[in-house]
Protein 1
Amino acid sequence: LYKSFFLNSGPTSANRNHDSKGKVSNKKHHIVQGDPEQPAIRVGFFQLFRFATGKDMLMMAVGSVCAVLHGSAQPLMLLVFGLLTDTFIDYDIELNELRDERKECVNNTVQWKWNYTGVQDLTLPLNLLLDIEHEMTLFAFYYVGIGVSVFLLGYFQISMWVTAAARQIQLIRKMYFSKVMRMEIGWFDCTSVGELNTRMSDDINKINDAIADQVAIFVQRFTTFVCGFSIGFVKGWKLTLVIIAASPLIGVGAGLMFVAKLTGMELQAYAKAGAVADEVLSSIRTVAAFGGERKEVERYDKNLISAQRWGIRKGIIMGFFTGYMWLIIFLCYALAFWYGSTLVIDTEEYTPGTLLQVFFGVLVAAMNLGQASPCLEAFAAGRGAATIIYETIDREPEIDCLSEAGYKLDHVKGDIEFHNVTFYYPSRPEVKILDQLSVAVKSGETTAFVGPSGAGKSTAIQLIQRFYDPKEGMVTIDGHDIRGLNIQWLRSLIGIVEQEPVLFATTIAENIRYGRPGVSMEDITTAAKEANAYNFIMDLPQKFNTLVGEGGGQMSGGQKQRIAIARALVRNPRILLLDMATSALDNESEAIVQEALDKVRVGRTTISIAHRLSTIKNADVIVGFEHGRAVERGKHNELLDRKGVYFTLVTLQSQGDKSQDMKTSEETICLSRASIRQRSRSQLSNLVPESSVPIAGDLKEDGLVEPAPVARILKYNSPEWPYMLFGSLGAAVNGGVNPVYSLLFSQILATFAITDTVAQRNEINGICAFFVMVGVVSFFTQMLQGYAFAKSGELLTRRLRRIGFQAMLGQEIGWFDDHRNSPGALTTRLATDASQVQGATGSQIGMIVNSLTNIGVAIIMSFYFSWKLTLLILCFLPFIALSGGFQAKMLTGFAKQDKQAMEAAGQISGEALNNIRTIAGLGKERSFVETYVAHLDAPYQSALRKANVYGACYGFTQCVVFLTNGASFRFGGYLVEQEGLHFSLVFRVISAIVTSGTALGRASSYTPDYAKAKISAARFFQLLDRVPPISVYSDRGDKWNNFKGNIEFIDCKFTYPTRPDIQVLNGLNVSVKPGQTLAFVGSSGCGKSTSVQLLERFYDPDHGRVLIDGHDSTRVNVPFLRSQIGIVSQEPVLFDCSIAENIKYGDNLREISMNEVISAAKKAQLHDFVMALPEKYDTNVGSQGSQLSRGQKQRIAIARAIIRNPKILLLDEATSALDTESEKTVQEALDKAREGRTCIVIAHRLSTIQNSDIIAVMSRGLLIEKGTHDQLMALNGAYYKLVTTGAPIS
């Protein structure tokens, strides 16, 4: 019988299913934007099983057989159920017969009484089943028998498939990882590490889902579908056809509902607002500088309206279709029972039992067909994931580092030569890195490669290691082309020390041992001594057994570098490659590491790339690189005379060194050169949207967030209480529908026992009409519920997004520097967190009300009709609820537990893939693959254990209803016989409670959404509760009327909050009087722009003060201060709106007339150019001003600064990015703008600085010289040198 209930929960479970799928698809949409299309599916379903062994095949076959048998169990049940109904009805008819005083019972036969005058020979040979208890016992045994077999079949079906899948997945993981580790480095450049990591976890999990329990469940449900229909057709084809005729209506409803769900329209509607948020957060400095926070919040809010409208529309559509489904289903009931009853009563073709068998047979079949569909999604996802994974497994690497092929030379001298090598990275084929490079490196000598960033120095080194093969030309060692040598052997000759050495998360000794396998502790100690690392290691409490932390995080830069050198030395290499080995260190550690390197170089071929003079001077040969060619070579002095590449590097540097003996880790010309590794990462990051990385980090840290109290979430939703009230009413009525259904259903059965045909007919028509009514009512209440909760939920989402966005814009700038708060991460947070919070209010309340009324009504009704039977069934209720919950859980799958088990293996694979260059250089691929495989064992074992548990649970959930029914009907039979309970009440009670039980289970499984909502809300509240140290929205702080623009920096020290180890300002003292122009010059990274940001109060100094008109900047009201400052920066940020609006952005505190805009534009030399455009001032500048040239953008930015009429003008390299012509125009505009204002200029070109009142030369956060142009020239110091060499000042 329990299928009838299944049916009730049918539509709901169906929507819920779509619901979760819908959400998933939304999220996908968010992250997938980076890769335009999902992989085409190129793997057939059966190819998924290509790694199955014979044993796996056997298990899968057994599992499938069990699934088929299990699938036929439900239809079998219906046969038993039909017989049972007939038995009850016959019994009741006889009771009715016996109530007739004119009849009596003789020898188990009901007859007319003899003394009754009438038709004497009319004996009714109805055999009275006196012993209904006996019959019921028999049926109970049937039920129990089917229940037990279902348990066993369910267990085997699931556990066999899951076990087989676990074995295959383990093999796939092994093969995939070992193949990835064999790939050449060029492949890694084109594939991001993050992507590989997700592939290893998510994609392989998707394959797992596609080849495990889903297959078994699909087979089982499909069998049920087939058997259900066959029972329908065999037992009663007429009724079956009638029901089938109505079923397309249900299908249409379900299909349309799916479409409505997946349009994702509200995401597109939100995309507009999302774009605003992204634009604003990416240009937060501009927004802050021009005080545009409130304006932006308004603009964002405007764009949210359309998203809100769509969300509400979706709620109505969803409500409409849910209601429609229920309506159709109830109409189907009415039709089936009405037509079926004619067949039973008028033509007597069916017994009542047959009617039920047919009706439920078809329903069960339809239900199962519906439930089999999610499995198809899993199969498709699995095939999509397998496409990429299997293609990688089948790919042959171009440079196979594990191959045994190639020569090994007996004796290696170490002469390296490049012959006309041309090379470009596979990830950027359009950029030539090396262009016909020819260089010879003699054995035993130290050769230094110097040259500007991007000249190809590091690339040359990577070619020696054979990370890449040159596109033309060849690299030889001792005259042998390295392509002919064995790779592992070649790499074992080479020791490499990089700029950012990579250490592995293990002990120091192990890290050094990575250099050469099986090396003794003495060798490790010697290597450590040679690398000047021995002393600091012995000072550590655990000496060589100290763990270095993830990525070597526990060690300082110098320590890491020395461990890396020890690792390179322990190999005893013939060739030593030093790629900027000391550039990232401070002076002290540099000297130590340099000394270590000098010790080591003796007698080896060494190639050193460096930017610091101290490192290069004593090399045997210096080779100067430019644009991928070696342009000069010779000794230090020879090259100085040539005045080429080397000369420029040297002159620039020595000036920086003299100026200051206190060194900081920022390097003058190091220009924060990224190592190639970082560089190739940056190419990749263009492919992967930045949001995907920090978010992953986000979730980890936010794991610590306490889930938010519901009361607080509801408080934000309080204005919508009328909606929520009506929604709850609708939900309550919907909850009552289930029990009402069981009432009507049992009433119909009762009518079949009525002997008077006319009364019977009326009764049946009445009940069918009632079915229609219930359908109509539930149609409207579902719509009400859908609309009301959607409305309250969407209003809440909009309110939260707005408040959240406002809170974000109110944070200080330093907060945005944290990678966790990158624009991508923040916009994603606004998009997803806010919409997830809905889950804790509206729909969740609806859910709870719905289940409570459902169960409440069911139990009250049952106790009213038969309290004894109700008590018996209530014992089973918890189990039924459990099974309902478990079934809902089955739909979501169990991937989460797998993830935790995979974590250890995931760490290893992550570490390996992130540091693939280091591993390849050390030739350590094999050992990583072995460790990974060893770590796969734990998840595999847990998967096997889980297969059993999971199988048992599945079997249990499937059989629990059979057992309940067995017990209840047996007891029901007893009550009917002993206590004269009417049999229809037995059905009524059983069906009411069992339905509500499954519904309860389903509701309970709905909680994950709820938990997620609370966490999202908590993250939101964390943001709202954060009090920024520099608050934009507060009115506190000084304001004064006659703002002059007198600025003083007093002993300012500052470090950026995200890089506390790098001192940017180191005691800056400088002052400007009102109306003066101060120019900052100096190399990049010396703190020029930083001082400007302190003035804007984007940051506050850590030490010292910034005084404005004698007021301490930290005490000044922030909006007031910023309103007095106009800024024009090197890359001006424009917003995606018209030119006029961009200019008006300069002053957000008042309405600006068009005349003001035009006069500002004239001052900025912009007016003529704008008037030449077709739309004049209404021309849209495109996103980030992409429609305009740089000079035009720069002039708009100047107009924007002028319109504020600021007292202080900051020009941060305002002309450096322009060509000469536009520079002239812009420069004129700036000179006009400067009149009568305090002005701070940062520039690299002399022409811009010469006529400043004060020129301040900075280096490493200190002022080294200041004065006018002429004074400084007379000093003959750093400024003089810069001017005379004509080198750009950077």
Protein 2
Amino acid sequence: MASPSDDRPSTVDDASLLSPDDLCGRSLLALVAAGHAMAARIRTLSDRVPLPYWAASRLPGPRQSGPGGSNEARQQQQRQRSKSTSSGEVGGLFNLFGPSRKAGSEGAPEDKTGGDELSDARKYAPFLFDFNYLHNPEEYEASLLARARDGPGEDGGKTAAGGGGGSNGGPAGLDLAQLEREFTVNQSKTVVEFYELFESVVGYHTDLSSFVDDLNRGYYIRHTVESVLSDEVGRRLVCEAVYLWGVLLITMEHYLPGPVRERLVISYHRMVGRDPSLGDISKIDSVVALCRSSAVRPPATAHRSSHKHPADEMRLFARFPLPSDFVRNVVGCLLSSDIYRRSTTAFPSIDHRSVALAGQASILYVVLYFDPHALREENAKMRSVVDRFFGDNWVVHVYGGLTADLGKEWGRYGAARAAMAGVLGEESVRVLHVGNAKLIGQCMAELRAYLTMGILTDGFVLDNRRDLLNCLRRCNIALRWRILHRRTADVALREIICAKQADGALTTDPKLEGDFAVSESHVISLLLLTSQLEMQLKDTFRQLLERREDIWSSCKTRTSGMMSDLAGYFGGGDGDGGSGSRAAALSKVDRHEGLSDWFAAMADEVNALSYESGEHVTVRGRRIQHCVQSLEEIELFDVVDRDVQARAFVGEARGMLLQMARAVGISSGVLDDMAWISDMSYGVECIRSYVDIIHARISKDPANVSLLQGFFLKLSTSSDGPIERPTSGTPGGAGVSDYYSSKLISFVRTVLSIVPVSVFAIIVQMSDIFERRLQPLPLRVPVEKLSSFAQLGERYKLSMMAHEVSIFANGILNMETTRIGGKEISPREFLEEGIRREMVSHVAELFNNLLQFDFAADAETVSSMNKHQAAAMRSLNSLGGRLEGLQRALVSVEDYISIPGLTMWHEETARILNYNVEQEVNKYLLKKVLDVDSRYQSSLAPIPRFPRTENEATCINFTGRVVSMLVKITDAQYATFSLERSGWYSADGSVVFGRNNIALLRKAIGVIGLTGIDRLLCYRILHELHRLVKFFRTNVTKQGMLLEQLRDELSPQWKTTANSVAIYHSGSKKTEMLMLPMLTCFRRVGQSQLLRRMIKYELQRCASKEAKLFQQKIEIRNAEILISELIKDELDVSEVKELSLLTNAIGLGDPINTIFMTTDPMEGLPVLLLFFVINYVPKLSYDPVSGSLAKVKSGYPIDGWPIVAGISTLLRQFHPSYTKAFLGYVGQFIRLSVQTYVSRKQEKKEGSSRLAADLKTAIVMMEQLCDLSNLPDSDLYEHVPQYLIEMCSEI
């Protein structure tokens, strides 16, 4: 049976209403097409509702329990995976913007953050208002401003205006204005899409009402409502147009619950109020009426179920009513006529009447909500509805896989409830259940007989066409009833229908006695076998249709030859009239002129039969029938009857003639009937609950994969109806086709996912052998040790696992390429995509679970930090080993399963690392990169998200934790950086983080991971610089007069004034409160820059070792582009961007020279930096062993090289004059310090030794600054003479 939407519109030749010149027909067809398109759009956008709207509505979003069947599939895959690491814990910080899934549900990244993400999303709830906002918007806005000013009170986040904003708010003091700005920047596009959808739904009602009014007013001249309803095509289209309006309301209520719709509309209203360029709110009243929540609050998970929950349809449909007379005419048309004639042709039996009218029943179910009086009061009409459409069923398919239980849906309406009472009685249901169980048993026996190898030949199909089609009808009827009614909402009825065998035994066929138990496994068996028979029959009939003329010609030639042979045979000749083989089979008999002439005339009669004679098929069939009857009569003739050879020839000729008749009788109508019979649009969502059973069967026997191709082809018919109208009625129908095709392909991936899950589980086991048990083979092996290195037992296990992998993969690899909907699917591609998906999930879990570091907050000591550093290095080493083993295992099986293993490995690991870096960077950005916009996220192999760890709550994922680990172990409080030794060292001289450690990090996360860490460090530096600039403009600028005064007193820089010491002393005291924030910034920036420097050196070393030629090419090309820039040649921007990525990958460039930001001049900055140096020089001393400035006091968080790198980075962001001025001020200070030191030493005053140490420290700091900034020595000597520096070094 086909759903109402599965009707194929008639061609222009068949119906004048659809002719290009008929405006009425074209308008009606466009209306129906638009309805299908909007229904698809609602479903598409329902998967993209931002999570904060679910949180504010107190409904769980799709990501909390998984979207429909795809979550079940992920659970099944999770059970199949071989777990090698422990799971993570709580969290999720910046992934707050809901699912960004594409067409299908597994286009969604796997969410493993649990309820924490929903909790984080609730911080947006205070400004996501429902329609209560419209009663008094000023009060709501004022309460929002007050809350942003004061923070949430004890109400937990409810507004003063009544709590329309939802529940839990953010923490006290949270800047709600900034939070709302961030939300608007990231979600405005999505909110606008939803509002445009609501406007288009309202527009559909407007267009439908206008069409009806135009018909009533005679706008279409010769068309009226009555004339259109009397036309076959018009009747179909009008009923569908009204039905689709109801479907839009039901679908929107189901997939976009009222509380969510209200908040989306108010968000749009407030966004447009602040920025009118975002859209237009002229139709806001109609949209509000459409989106207002109904009185019945939907169940918490209703939007994720494919079974419709009872809602207040009366209230919903009454908001946008249709003319009552028009609705009653449509209802009468549905009751009195069959609007889909093809369905009654496909199911001609009176016993199948309810199935033949199932599509019409779906339309009637929806349309009756526009006529509530009939549902409540008109008992006679409702009895006729039930008698005609629902006499043996009560679970109806509404649209697109959405089902409804009439027992619940109509239980609120008196007349409808009374009419359904006879059907819903337990005894009546038991009778239907038993009858269906017996029918399933009969169908299973017939299917096994027909699907026996060698049975379905062309001849068998032609001879038994009617029996085969009847078998298909029975199978599909049994399937439809069982699949739909297992979803009944009545618990008592469900216990009858879903009864289990008392002994718990698993049988192949349903139990046809006692409780007549039919399990889900029986349903799947019937479904798979039915789809297999349908696929084979369709292929056979399709081939027969293509070869009809060839079959006709071949049979005709052979029959004519046989008649000629028999004529020669009875004529006493040698039988030369036929083929040699046939003539040789006939020995000579006595001459019989009568029979010879008769067979010769029969040969002429057969030759006169023509396939292209222009005669009607019935005329040709009658002529063939006369020939067959003549042969039957001649066979009774005594001479022929006694001759075995002649009788055999006559029988064979008669069979050939019958073959000709059957071949010419085949038409395309057979395939059309089969399309209606095999339709499964009703179960496209229900079938998801059976995926686990299919997976279990394939796991038990991989050969079962061969049955899935027919199953997928059967499911593909479910999209024909929704696609047909939009494709024929509107230019945008391709989008609808893509949606339904992608949904089906997504389900196919879910079903087939068990194969790559099983394959990858074996690969993981192989990786364990490669990593832990298989010894690396040296270049030279002594003979006596050859047997130990052979490790035959381990290699035998690997070979057995590889064989098992090939068995699983063969099932998919042997499947043929299939077309589903408008897209072609390749099982080989599905296998590769599935393995990619499993590899991404497994590798992402390895990264997440092994890159977790246990650092105690604010309670670390040097010894504990050393322990954590050692544990972190062990984690990196373990991760590198596991990834290497997995890579070797994947490469070892790539030929068995026909995949590019090494290429896949590099592509997916790079994608995982880049995606996690991208998400970690989001915390520094106002405009977040959502999954839907990410170039690294994929719907085919989604990268999972994991919860945050308790110890690293501010880190989104493992990349942030790695950066945090590096920052903590290299903190100035515990370690000192040495540029000469290229690393951080503890006080006792042991390595904390050096060249070997950075190499270990590269082994664990690769070159892509290192470049990602470098990118995160860049954003960390940028963040700190912005904070410093903000601090300078808000705090330092207030002391602008002081800095200006100090600058004037110290000018000119080449001269030392008499009161300089007093100036320095006074300036240090007055700027002391500004020093600590600057120290923090310089420490963090400098530390990050030195880490970047180590990363660059490691990347350079790796590139020169493993890709020297490539490195040289990039360097040369980079130099060419720089030259082109100097001579003002035009450059290709895309090439420059690509080259920039490559230069980062090979470590080209100096991190210190990076320009992170552009900002307005900061007057007084060089003077402020001078006093920073004056303040912190006494806290440092030169360590000749490490060649760095070390802290004087142990445990003080200061280190020379990070401070120097931080100052250098800051100065690099400004004009070079800032650096020159800073060197001038410090040079002036050094010269004065030398004078002071000399005078004190001559006068033998106290403090000269301390002054000498500070003077030496200041000179070393300036030398290091010039060295790190790549400044020439002359820049320093310009302010501090070289002889003075040499003299100070000997102090």
